[in-house]
Amino acid sequence: MAKDLSALFHFKDLRAYPLTAMHMIMATRLCILFGQAGRDPLPDLAVRLRSMEAARRVARLVRSLQAVWPDSFLIHRPCCMALSPDEALLGDIAVTAVQGDEGAAVTLLREVLPVDVARHVFIGAVAAAAAIQAASLQPHRPEA
Question: Counting beta carbons within 10 angstroms of the beta carbon of residue 84, is it exposed (0 to 12), middle (13 to 18) or buried (19 or more)?
Answer without folding.
Answer: middle
